[in-house]
Amino acid sequence: MSGQIIRRLLLRNAAAVAVGSAAISNDAELTELFEDPVSSALSRSVDIDGDGIDHVQFAAADDPAGERGTVLQASSQGAATRDYAISLRNLAFADLTLADLVDDGLAYDYYVGADNTSMAPNEVCLVLTGPENGLDLVFRTKDDEREGDWYTRDVATELIGDSELPGSEQPWKRIHLTRENATAMDRSNVELLEENLLERFGADTSVRAAGLGHGMPTMEPETIDTYYDAFAVAGTEYELPTTS
Q1: What is the DSSP letter of 82?
Q2: Exposed, middle or buried by CB within 10 Å (0-12, 13-18, 19+), for 237?
Q3: Given its phi and psi angles, is residue 64 left (phi above 0), alpha (psi -120 to 50 degrees) or beta?
């Protein structure tokens, strides 16, 4: 599958996630959904490999360290794959801005499993609305080679480009979604952003949803085995939805 097709597939699925559609059968439905709020829980698994199987899933699992009870796991079920999964939580009701996330925190814990060969913990994702029309899906990949223990990703520092933790050198990326490009697919390239997301979008930009993504859609197939817990936004901990 070519890089252009992969970007278009991800854009369409990102649009569906961002507007909260469980199923979109035509472009008219997708356009209408931009009028609707983000749904209460958003999650998708995307078959990038094209083999008819959504290998990567977010699912409830036991804590591999035996300390926390039930946690969230991103797993490719032992398969090496380029498939991708995303798990987002609605925050529209919380009336949050980017400045709130910087001031009051955005963080989660992660544990890289023994079978993982993928970048991990991989991506944090935000759905934003600002002065431009449409929605912005922004995300940043983190690749921390540490494994076998729980670590904390402090995304609030990444929002202003201050993080010096392992694996934090990746840029923020943006897919800007409007009625036009979500249906015509004529602006499907991912835009690389500066490290300081707060300066790029502005302090008053609304945060519509936040969550996690994991997968290697534009790289060689890898095995995913990563665990997550304590996903907290502006001082409130949220349970992220599963895809399976």
Answers
A1: -
A2: exposed
A3: alpha
Q: In whole angstroms, give the CA distance from residue 64 to residue 83.
A: 23
Number of C-alpha atoms within 13 angstroms, CB side, residue 59?
12
Residues 105-159 have pLDDT tens digits of 999 999 999 999 999 999 999 989 866 667 888 999 999 888 899 999 999 999 9
β 70-75/225-233 pair status:
antiparallel
Q: Which two three-digit tokens encode residue 148?
A: 């076998």
Instruction: Determine the Cα–Cα distance for residues 218 and 223; give it in Å rounded to an integer.
Output: 14
CA 175 to CA 127: how far, in whole Å? Answer: 10
R_g (Cα) of the chain, nearest Å = 17
**3-state secondary structure at position 145:** coil
The burial of 85, by beta-carbon neighbours within 10 Å (0-12 exposed, 13-18 middle, 19 or more buried), is given as buried
Spatial contact of 134 and 179, defined as CB atoms under 8 Å apart:
yes
Q: Are 183 and 27 in contact (CB under 8 A)?
A: yes
| CA gap 16, 53 in Å, rounded | 19
Both tokens assigned to 220: 């060689």
d(CA 99, CA 30): 30
**Single pTM value for the model:** 0.84
Please state, as a whole number, how many other Cβ atoms lie within 10 Å of the Cβ of residue 19: 25
CB 97 within 8 A of CB 203: yes
| Cβ atoms of 108 and 150 closer than 8 Å | no
